[in-house]
Design a protein that fits this description.
Number of helices: 5
Structural class: alpha/beta
Distance between the termini: 66 Å
Order of helices and strands: EHEHEHEHH
Helix content: 25-40%
Number of strands: 4
Largest sheet: 4 strands, parallel
Shape: globular
Radius of gyration: 19 Å
Oligomer: single chain
Strand content: 5-15%
């Protein structure tokens, strides 16, 4: 039986590691749309936390960002830790952040990143720059150690799921052991009244 004509949304570009050796962890980010200057500082902190966790490279698309964040992205791109692609938005999609079309574009960006770089890494995480997959046990410091600590009973899995826990930006006392300019590290506790 002949196949139908394919009408794919994405042209698959398969990139393989140049020396045939996969890096351990990569990250796909749907796209960045941070117009607030303050987020440039938070992004720097997030990138360094990802590096500490064992990430080799972050792949993202630039939709629109503050000029200071663009400088940060360019800096990390020169260090070969971030890959920034242009966000190519169809002209028919309204510029509304919560429309069905906007969600479809986000999924397209994630799928594009996944299929483009999937052969470069053993593990590929899909997270946003305001999300961090963190081990709960204090003796586990990296994602590599986290995966090694999971008892898989000899089984292999294609994917792992992490639980979502939100630390809202509430008025809580600052941790005196952490500099106040570390936004992410300062927002790891919730103040309950």
């Amino acid at each position: 039986m002949p196949c139908d004509f394919a009408e794919n949304n994405l042209r698959i570009i398969d990139i393989h590691p140049p020396k045939g050796v996969k890096e351990e962890f990569g990250i796909c980010v749907k796209h960045v749309t941070y117009e607030d200057r303050e987020f440039a500082f938070r992004f720097v902190e997030w990138v360094h936390l990802m590096r500490i966790m064992g990430v080799t490279k972050i792949h993202l698309a630039n939709r629109f960002v503050h000029p200071d964040l663009l400088k940060v992205l360019n800096h990390f791109e020169t260090k070969d830790f971030v890959e920034v692609l242009p966000f190519l938005e169809p002209s028919s999609v309204p510029d509304v952040k919560r429309t069905w079309e906007a969600r479809t574009l986000e999924l397209n960006m994630i799928n594009d990143c996944f299929y483009r770089v999937r052969h470069l890494y053993k593990y590929l995480a899909i997270v946003d720059p305001d999300e961090i997959i963190t081990p709960v046990k204090p003796e586990i410091k990296t994602w590599h150690e986290l995966l090694e600590s999971i008892d898989l009973e000899g089984k292999k899995y294609d994917a792992y799921l992490s639980h979502n826990l939100i630390f809202p930006n509430v008025e809580a006392p600052l941790n005196p052991d952490i500099p106040p300019y570390h936004y992410i590290l300062q927002h790891t506790r919730v103040k309950f009244e």
